[in-house]
Amino acid sequence: MFEDLKPHIADLRKRLIISGITLIVMFFVCFAVYEPILEWMMMPAKAILPAGTNMVAIEVQETFFTAMKVSFFAAFIFSLPIIFWQLWLFLAPGLYDHEKRLALPFVFFATLMFLLGASFAYYVVVPFGFEFLINFGNTVVTVLPSIGRYVGFFTKILFGFGIAFELPVITFFLAKIGLVDDKMLKDFFKYAIVFIFILSALLTPPDVLTQFLMAIPLILLYGISIYIAKVFNPAAREDEDE
To answer: Which pTM was predicted?
Structure first.
């Protein structure tokens, strides 16, 4: 049995190495220009902070490690097409020939949906969430956000929403290979609602507003996923005819 797994383990290792090298190269590129990337990350916060105030570094090494975190996150975003391509190449040997032709659409739409999720987080969730947290209790204390904490808050939300928006792509892929249909997704809906709110609590800061801003789009995406499964999995139509 282990002998049968060796080729798959070797292939997985190859895909991880290629993805890792891509990520490392992009990290050094992004680290060389981290300042404009950091400025872009700070724009939603700067629009909310009181005039004349700015973020602070509360530890000596905080700015350096923040630059590394910014560079790694940007490198991950720029490496997404290669990472998704390597993921597809790993899965491809187990697919039929007509399914293998979905490689480019998979890479394109997986990257696009991640960017859409991250954009929704950047333009909607981060401003609302940050404004709520900044203004909460501002009559008692003056909030001076730590740049390291803010970047952690920012990257966690964008990454969480990027991953969450992959739901339709995953559903399309599973429907095309016959693993899910719309009836299965409809039957699982009530459990999916609970799972979505748990996931939202894990992937967002501990405030109700941000969690709802993730949960509501996810519920809508789940509904879209049901429609995708209905369109692309013939078994769903057969079930309806019965």
So the answer is: 0.83
